[in-house]
Amino acid sequence: MDLQKENTRQYSKKEIVDYYSTYSLRPDEKHFNFEGDVLIIGCGAGRTVIPLAENLQNNITAIDISPEMIKRCKEGLKKRNLKANVFVADASELQLDRKFDYIWFPFHSIDSIFPIKNRKKALKITRGMLKNGGQIVYNTHNRFFYKYFLKYLSSLTKPFIKDIVPHGYVYSYYANPFGEEGKRIWRNSINPKFPKWKKILSSILPIIFNKSVYIVIKNATK
């Protein structure tokens, strides 16, 4: 099975496009102060594009591999009289003649790129699109989360386990947050609904108690 083609097919289904047609940032995403020229990779139906476009207007470029997701995103922008450069593209084959202050893979979108080598290719390509001092921001499912790690150890498909989620698309559920090149800064995003004991443990040991982790790759040329 060509997992990338299968994901494109699944993400183009109307019920999945409808499911992702919300337009608000998640609590953990609000910690990032995206300013300037921003490239969003895996923008879906516009959940992240529209809130940023409301603040940044013409500084947003966004891509997704699903034509139906892009169509819905454009409809959402038009309805709100917002502007963004939104189009269908594959992150691992992306060619743009401009540079960005921030390049963002929101909500585990990097975990849906297949084959695995194309994730590294996408990161290498996009790193070349950063301005001086620019940043790539992505989050990935944390292999070392205590519940996932036991399953990882018993897996016969190391180092990545491919799961099919309820909507039918696939991703690497236990991705390795240490597996990519670049300078990394851990951003610990604690769920506000956590009980107090879990908030404390998450602050002390984020690698064990967070289901996903944020990784920031900085352009060190500044």
Write the layout of secondary structure elements.
Layout: H1 3-11, H2 14-19, E1 38-41, H3 49-56, E2 60-64, H4 67-79, E3 85-88, E4 100-105, H5 117-127, E5 130-141, H6 146-154, E6 162-164, E7 170-172, E8 186-187, H7 196-204, H8 206-209, E9 212-218
Parallel strand pairs: 1-2, 1-4, 2-3, 4-5
Antiparallel strand pairs: 5-9, 6-7, 8-9
In brief, what are we looking at here?
With 222 residues, this protein is of the alpha/beta class.
Structure overview:
- This protein has 222 residues and is of the alpha/beta class.
- It has a single domain (3-218), classed as Vaccinia Virus protein VP39 (Rossmann fold).
- It is 31% helix and 21% strand.
- A seven-stranded mixed β-sheet has the order 3-2-1-4-5-9-8, sandwiched between helices. It has a two-stranded antiparallel ribbon with strand order 6-7.
- The longest helix is centred in the N-terminal third of the chain and has 13 residues, at 67-79.
- It is globular and about 45 Å long.
- Residues 164-191 have low confidence and may be disordered.
Portion in strands? 15-25%
* CATH architecture type: 3-Layer(aba) Sandwich
Note the run of SSEs as H and E. HHEHEHEEHEHEEEHHE
The structural domain count equals 1
Residue-averaged pLDDT: 78
Which outline best applies?
globular
- Specify the biggest β-sheet: 7 strands, mixed
Terminal-residue CA separation: 43 Å
> SS-based structural class?
alpha/beta
CATH class: Alpha Beta
Strand order of the largest sheet: 3-2-1-4-5-9-8
Q: What is the CATH superfamily classification? A: Vaccinia Virus protein VP39
CATH topology: Rossmann fold
Fraction of helical residues: 25-40%
In DSSP terms, counting alpha (H) and pi (I) runs of 4 or more, how many helices?
A: 8
Stretches where pLDDT is under 50 for at least 5 consecutive residues are: 164-191
